[in-house]
Amino acid sequence: MTRMVRICTDFIYITHTIRVIRVLFLFLLAYMDIQLIQHNTPEYNQMVTLRLEILRTPLGLTFTEEQLEKEKDDILIGAFEEGNIIGCCVLTPHNSNTIQLRQMAVATGIQAKGAGRKIVEYAEETALDRGYSVLMMHARNTALDFYRKCGYEVKGNEFIEVTIPHHHMEKKLK
């Protein structure tokens, strides 16, 4: 009987701890500041560092000065928590109707907690505000399910980009 009580007590404690963690992440999302950032600023430098850590370094890649310089005309979006970047993306005009979401990254400890969805929603609103009706991307295969949950559809066959499989995805913005 004592062992059963101990198991029940442990279960209740674990369940409570999980609820507390969920509330803390919801709190984090509520106070996450998503904003447009300017090229070549301290916030931009944080963005480049996060993208290197999450997207480039694991593939043995880096950025060239030319690649970063080309971003001066892009729309740069950063999500911050207490002044520190926790997620980001880049929007690059493709044509007069379509804009491309690129370089989407969320800090490792924050992934799968809703921050990425909030960043995508902000990117979509920003694209709409600027007159774009389609948001497209070259999504890594590992991110396809995430983007499908955000309403994106795969268009075409798999292709290789930055050494790994990707798919073209699109969403008509409303």
Largest sheet: 8 strands, mixed
What distance lies between the first and last C-alpha atoms, to the nearest angstrom? 59 Å
**Architecture of the largest domain, according to CATH?**
3-Layer(aba) Sandwich
CATH superfamily of the largest domain: Gcn5-related N-acetyltransferase (GNAT)
Within the CATH hierarchy, at the fold level, what is the topology of the largest domain? Answer: Aminopeptidase
**In the CATH hierarchy, what is the class of the largest domain?**
Alpha Beta
Helix content: 40-55%
Number of strands: 8
Total domains, how many? Answer: 2
User: What is the radius of gyration?
Assistant: 19 Å
> How many helices in DSSP terms?
5
* Elements, N to C (H/E): HEHHEEEHEHEEE
Mean pLDDT, all residues = 88
Beta percentage is: 25-35%
Uncertain segments are 20-29
- Shape, per Cα inertia axes: globular
The secondary structure category is alpha+beta
List keywords for this structure.
alpha+beta, Aminopeptidase, single chain, 5 helices, 41% helix, 2 domains
Please give a structural write-up.
- By secondary structure, the protein is of the alpha+beta class.
- It folds into 2 domains: 1-31; 33-172, 3-Layer(aba) Sandwich (Aminopeptidase).
- It has helices at residues 2-30, 42-56, 65-70, 115-129, 144-149, and strands at 33-37, 75-81, 84-93, 98-106, 134-140, 153-154, 159-161, 164-172.
- Strands 1, 2, 3, 4, 5, 6, 7 and 8 form an 8-stranded mixed sheet that branches.
- The longest helix has 29 residues, at 2-30.
- 21% of the residues are buried.
- Residues 20-29 have low confidence and may be disordered.
